Amino acid sequence: MVSEDKDKQPQVTRNRNFAMALKNALHGILVVVLRERNMRIHIISAFMILLAGLYCGLRRSDWLWVTIGVFLVIYSEFLNTIVESIVDLIVGRRYHVLAGLAKDLAAGLVLAAVGVEMIILLIIFEPYVYRLLWH
Ligand SMILES: Nc1ncnc2c1ncn2[C@@H]1O[C@H](COP(=O)(O)OP(=O)(O)OP(=O)(O)O)[C@@H](O)[C@H]1O
């Protein structure tokens, strides 16, 4: 009985094995997708980019750049969510100018990543779109 109750306690110790680490990592991905509307937008965009790439018949080297661009945005959204969670943990609902700055910086990182992704997509897709329109 005692050990059963102990098992139900929230985990605050290190992962004991790879399966636990994997389960917690997948939980992190699930939470960011469910909690962050922007992450869902990035994932839908990534899916549309995938379809556009298949339609255009991108070369292998093009796919590498597209993958880097898409991942950059998703990576930065993860960082943004991590910063928000830590800031909220520390300050809660209280106002603090540094809490606001940290969140603004994290949001700025996502915006910058989206900008880089747009540049990569323009460079990669431009010749394919040009060919589709004029040939
Ligand atoms: N505790 C706080 N103290 C000061 N300013 C805050 C605080 N919490 C949030 N803010 C300000 O409000 C903005 C929005 O806060 P919120 O927590 O919704 O950020 P957000 O979750 O980054 O938005 P999004 O989910 O769209 O990325 C922040 O960018 C920051 O300027």
Automatic annotation (TrEMBL):
It holds the Pfam family DAGK_prokar. Belongs to the bacterial diacylglycerol kinase family. This is Undecaprenol kinase. It comes from Convivina praedatoris. Its EC number is 2.7.1.66. InterPro entries: DAGK, DAGK_sf, UDPK. It is a multi-pass membrane protein. It is found in: Cell membrane. The keyword Transmembrane helix applies. Gene3D superfamilies: 1.10.287.3610. The chain crosses the membrane at residues 41-58, 64-83, 104-125. The keyword Lipid metabolism applies. It comes from the Bacteria. Keywords: ATP-binding, Cell membrane, Kinase, Lipid biosynthesis, Lipid metabolism, Membrane, Nucleotide-binding, Phospholipid biosynthesis, Phospholipid metabolism, Transferase, Transmembrane, Transmembrane helix. Its main location: membrane. One of its GO terms (molecular function) is di-trans, poly-cis-undecaprenol kinase activity.
